[in-house]
Amino acid sequence: MHILETQHLCHTYKGNIDALRNISFVAPRNIRIAIIGPNGAGKSTLFKHFNGVLKPTSGKILVRGEQITKENIREVRKTIGLVFQNPDDQIFSPTVEQDVAFGPMNIGLDEESVRHRVNEALKIVGLEEYRTRVPHHLSGGEKKRVAIAGIIAMEPQVLVLDEPTAGLDPQGIREITRFIRNFSDTYGMTVIFSTHSLSLAAELADYIYVMNRGEFVAEGTVSEIFSKPDLLTSVRLDVPVLPKLISSLQNQGVNIEMGYTYDQAEKSFLKAFGKMA
């Protein structure tokens, strides 16, 4: 049984706008899944179905094998934690600590349990010293981590991140990227994230779905997806710069292994050209 699954999911907004068409998706446990696609592909709409924010026009959403209903929606939202693209849509308390505590308090946990969950969540995202700070005075990357901490405090089994690096500066992107990798590796949680940054997908994903105009047009491993530049071009995306450079060298006869992440590319270059003095 998969922890999260959709079967032929469709969603039509008012005005007969087809936002999702026949989406079938599977999320096993302990995996990082990227959903890539251009702006307007339907990624945010899909994510809002994962924990019942939106209801499908047709098709099914299964969480641990059960469809989402009014009766189980609280359990669903404890299982599937959704972090919106804009953290200001999710942060509203006067201090970081109070914001992270909001979810656990609202599921009826006692004061000691709430305090423990808040402490653990802030530790995980590296914001232990920020507990008394006003969230809206923080940087974009710090706000993202506060929003993530609020979801982590609910102890979900799946963390869903909508464009986690959108609007961040390079330092913020590095922090969020490092957090996502370390978090899933350390805690064994399924992480699903959307992005139109293929470099981010290459660095973090175990598996990728390609989305365009409300549909999945391809799925596969990082190497399977990024070895199809024509597919990516057709959905207004491009191969990340490192594999594109290596592919160009291969086409010129250079004996170099393909690499999709920074670490893979570094090893490929060192093996092909030797260490430079």
UniProtKB/TrEMBL annotation:
GO terms for molecular function: ATP binding; ATP hydrolysis activity; ATPase-coupled transmembrane transporter activity. GO terms for cellular component: ATP-binding cassette (ABC) transporter complex. It is found in: Cell membrane. SUPFAM superfamilies: P-loop containing nucleoside triphosphate hydrolases. It comes from the Archaea. GO terms for biological process: cobalt ion transport. Residues 4-238 form the ABC transporter domain. Keywords: ATP-binding, Cell membrane, Membrane, Nucleotide-binding, Translocase, Transport. The keyword ATP-binding applies. It is a peripheral membrane protein. PANTHER family: ENERGY-COUPLING FACTOR TRANSPORTER ATP-BINDING PROTEIN ECFA1, HEAVY METAL TRANSPORTER. Part of an ABC transporter complex. Responsible for energy coupling to the transport system. Belongs to the ABC transporter superfamily. NCBIfam families: cbiO (TIGR01166), PRK13652.1 (NF010171). This is ABC transporter ATP-binding protein. It comes from Methanospirillum stamsii.
